[in-house]
Amino acid sequence: MALAVLRRAVELGVNHIDTAQFYGPDIANELIHAALHPYPEDLVLVTKVGAERDRRGGWIGAQRPHDLRAGVEANLRSLEVERIDVVNLRLLGAERDHGDRASVDLDSQLAEMIALRAEGKIGGIGISNANIGQLRQALPAGIACVQNAYNLLDRAGEPLLDLCREHDVAWVPYFPLGSAFAGVARVTQHPAVRAAAAAQGATPAQIGLAWLLAHDPHILLIPGTSSLEHLNENVAAADVRLDAPTMAALDGLAAARGRR
Fold first, then answer.
1. Which of 18, 20, 86, 111 has the smallest number of CB atoms closer than 10 Å to its CB?
2. Pick the catalytic residue: 23, 39, 150, 174?
3. Closest of 2, 140, 116 to residue 49, by C-alpha
4. For the domain that residue 67 is a member of, what is the CATH number?
5. Is residue 208 part of a domain?
6. What is the C-alpha to C-alpha distance for residues 29 and 34, in angstroms, rounded to an integer?
7. 71 is in which domain, residue-wise?
8. Number of domains into which the chain is organized
9. Within a domain: 21
10. 102: part of which helix (H) or strand (E)?
11. 23 in active site
12. 3-class SS string, 121-170
């Protein structure tokens, strides 16, 4: 099914695939390669480095410069490309690092990413899971995109989006519809979202994605799916037009949540 979803996505015009060698772990890139290689000329492959997975699938920090380089090389091999269009530096934080994999200062990490870009191994540098201070520090390196958690109900990242807008940097929200993880709200379950979906003749997921697209032109979507049905639904969200009263009602949800 994964191969069918990938092939159908490209058929529908999707030209941006977000991946990482450590997703799965260690199977996402292999599936992308099996489904799509040789890749369409307009397909943008975006991966990330800065982490590894342990034997149980848990996250391990891999934040040192040579770890980042090894991560890029692993992605190049598994995707079978000479250059990756964009590589995100996934910042995990000191609390997620283990033993001798202690945190490395951001400037050293960025210097390695810049070197990899100069060598032609990556096309652009992204940053993920960053706070606004880290984003400001990274901007002189020439940042192509920022990938942080953000959606209709979780707009804690709005100051970073404002900074991306100011510097014409793409904002790529993960958890665009929330998550089943504890403490992460599900956009599709909010009554106002469901009411908007009924009024629009759309699905709640389409409303959540359409709001993101309408909220700011710098937003690029990476909604995940494992089914052809949901893939078609997600792609069709681009055709959902939210009128001014609906946008105003949805815009107000974050303020309402903040007053609780």
1. 111
2. 23
3. 116
4. 3.20.20.100
5. no
6. 9
7. 2-147
8. 1
9. yes
10. none
11. yes
12. CEEEEEEECCCHHHHHHHHHHCEEEEECECCCCCCCCHHHHHHHHHHCCE
